[in-house]
Amino acid sequence: MPNLGYLLLVFLVGGVPMFLLGLYVAKRIGESKLINAERLAEKIVSEAEKEAETQRKAAVLEAKDEVYKARSAWEKQAQVERQTQIDLERKLSAREENLERKADLIAKKEKEITKRERDLSTRDRTLRAKDDRLTKLLEEENERLQRIACMTAEEAKKQLITNLEDQARHEGAQLIKSIRDKAKEEAEREARHIIAQAIQRCATDHVVESTVSVVSLPNEEMKGRIIGREGRNIRSFETATGVEVIIDDTPEAVALSGFDPVRREVARIALERLIADGRIHPARIEEIVDKTREEMNELIRQIGEETVLEVGVPGLHPDLVKLLGRLRYRTSYGQNVLQHSREVAYVAGMMAGELLLDVDVAKRAGLLHDLGKGLDHSVDGPHARIGAEVAARYGEAPIVLNAIAAHHEDVPYESTIAVLVAAADAISGARPGARRESLEAYIKRLQNLEEIASSFTGVQKAYAIQAGREVRIIVEPEDVNDHQAVELASDVAKRLTAELEYPGQIKVLVIRETRAIDYAK
């Protein structure tokens, strides 16, 4: 117990001061923390105030910037609207001025129309009065003429109609001559320039072929080998080729005669190969002919392709290309048809270029215009119509089909290209040396020209000159006047076109000459 009291006393004596000291220390620590907290709070508040001030200033500046931008945009919009309003006001002012001018013009025209109506009314009344007066004068004049001429009104009317017909014919001839002279002055120069330029740029050769091919022989003994025992070789050859072999007295040569030039060419090549090979018997003949025919078909295709590439006409159907190749072995009046087709394509294309037309279409139509001549006798009809039908079968354009069908005027022209193709065809066929004809046909054509020209009234003499390219007609000056001579030339040309067939064109020249002869004694 005494120890417990002692301990308690010690605790009270030492513990109370310590407790008080702890309280004091705790108080000081609390006051220090409070001061630090207050300082921190003051610092935070100060920084917050500074940040708030900065944000306020930034917000103010941003607001001022937005206000400035809005004000600038508004001012620009207002300026645009003001300018638009000014433009509208100007347009309205100009429109008002135009309306005022139009109104003034309308008012003036109304005045003029009113004045013209008054003038027309006055003129109408005047004309009616003159018409009545003229009618009366005509009646009086008719009565006077009937008394003087002892003619009735019907007789006088017939005489007047006759006189009017003569006068109209006379004036018509003058008009025809005037129109022709004017057309020649305006058109001949340009047409000749275009055609001459096209012809000069188209310098091509032409080939003259016949219906007979001649094959040279190394010796006379070869004729017997060609004939064979009892003629079996020659019969086999003619049967295989469809061509007649003519063996006559011509030294070291035989002739192959056939209407089909392709067959004749096959026969010529096959015979030359048989002669070079030396083995001539029916089996070998058939073998060589079949092989030559196959090679000829390939050659025809190659010729067609080369022609298409040379002329510059792409996209043709292979069958049309092959028909073009066959034209290499066709002739017309001695002129090679394929070469003629090339010339027509070149000339038509160049004339189309001069006239600013489609050159490719013109060349295509010119190359295909004689396509019908590539078919054999199994197809009936004129070659122009046949060629157009074949080209239509392979999808050619309508303008090309019309040019093919119309190049001999069998159908009407539907385009300028068709006219150019017909002109190019005439140019190629009518140029000197392009075609030839037999002497009998030539003489007959000249006689027909002179007979037709001489059959007209007033013709004194008619001569066919320039190889039938011109008919010169001399008329009786007492029976035919100058204007009737113009009519005569036109009538003769129309009749020649209707009754004769000829390549190119024929010039009709009418000559009226008056001679006065007297003698001095």
UniProtKB/TrEMBL annotation:
Principal subcellular localization: membrane
Catalytic EC class: hydrolase
CDD domains: HDc, KH-I_RNaseY
EC nos: 3.1.-.-
Membrane topology term: Single-pass membrane protein
Pfam families according to UniProt: HD (PF01966), KH_1 (PF00013), RNase_Y_N (PF12072)
Domain called HD: residue spans: 337-430
Gene3D superfamilies recorded: Hypothetical protein af1432 (1.10.3210.10), K Homology domain, type 1 (3.30.1370.10)
One cellular-component annotation, GO: plasma membrane
GO molecular function: hydrolase activity; RNA binding; RNA endonuclease activity
Subcellular location as annotated: Cell membrane
Family annotation (InterPro entries): HD/PDEase_dom, HD_domain, HDIG_dom, KH_dom, KH_dom_type_1, KH_dom_type_1_sf, Ribonuclease_Y, RNase_Y_N
Segments passing through the bilayer: 6-26
Protein family: Belongs to the RNase Y family.
HAMAP family xrefs: RNase_Y (MF_00335)
Functional description taken from the UniProt entry: Endoribonuclease that initiates mRNA decay.
Name of the protein: Ribonuclease Y
Organism, as annotated: candidate division TA06 bacterium SM23_40
